[in-house]
Amino acid sequence: MPRRCGKGPRWFCGELRGCGRRLTEAREIVLGVVDKSDEHLSAEDVFRAVRRVNRGIGLTTVYRTLDLLVNMNLLSRCDFGDGRARYERIRGTKEDHHHHHLVCTECKKVVNYRDFIEEEIELLGKTEKALSRKFNFTIRDHLIQFYGLCDKCRQRD
């Protein structure tokens, strides 16, 4: 049984072993940082938080670990139009569920939108079905981002 440093979520060890990967302290700390955050973190944000835990972990290790976690479908890489990739956890806890994003084009605030109403779910289902049929394409997931102004920025205008 691999040793854990205790800085990341417990379930992660099994996920790595299931993919034939080793549990390293760096991997555990990186996932722990993203797992504990409610924000959409950039690699630099993750690096700064990781360095507070272990100063020996470099930026290259953080980038490689983030790429690995994206490839394992544990994290999602998001682009909100600010020129920086952002990361968020998509698997691993009871709160796993699909969401969309509302992105303020002024202050760059990102809101996770999860509380779908029945009409939205029905519309997305119909859209996916129609696109699958039209392009003979199996849709496994989707990402929707809405861009506009948040309440604070709208009031300033």
Protein model, in words:
This protein is flat. The chain has helices spanning 12-18, 25-36, 43-53, 59-71, 118-135, 151-156, and strands spanning 41-42, 75-79, 85-89, 100-104, 110-113, 145-148. The strands form two sheets. Strands 1-3-2 form a three-stranded antiparallel β-sheet. The chain folds into two domains: 1-94, Winged helix-like DNA-binding domain superfamily/Winged helix DNA-binding domain (Arc Repressor Mutant, subunit A, Orthogonal Bundle); 97-157, Ferric-uptake regulator, C-terminal dimerisarion domain (Dna Ligase, domain 1), CATH 3.30.1490.190. It has 157 residues and is α+β, with helices and mostly antiparallel strands.
List the SSEs and their pairings.
Elements: H1 12-18, H2 25-36, E1 41-42, H3 43-53, H4 59-71, E2 75-79, E3 85-89, E4 100-104, E5 110-113, H5 118-135, E6 145-148, H6 151-156
Parallel strand pairs: 4-6
Antiparallel strand pairs: 1-3, 2-3, 4-5
How far is the first residue's CA from the last residue's CA? 58 Å
Number of separate domains: 2
- Over the alpha carbons, how many angstroms does the gyration radius reach? 18 Å
Tell me the name of the CATH homologous superfamily of the largest domain. Answer: Winged helix-like DNA-binding domain superfamily/Winged helix DNA-binding domain
The second-level CATH architecture of the largest domain is Orthogonal Bundle
| Whole-number mean pLDDT | 83
Number of helices: 6
- Structural shape: flat
DSSP strand tally: 6
Order of helices and strands: HHEHHEEEEHEH
The fraction of residues assigned to DSSP E strands is 15-25%
CATH topology of the largest domain: Arc Repressor Mutant, subunit A
Main pleated-sheet profile? 3 strands, antiparallel
Helix content: 40-55%
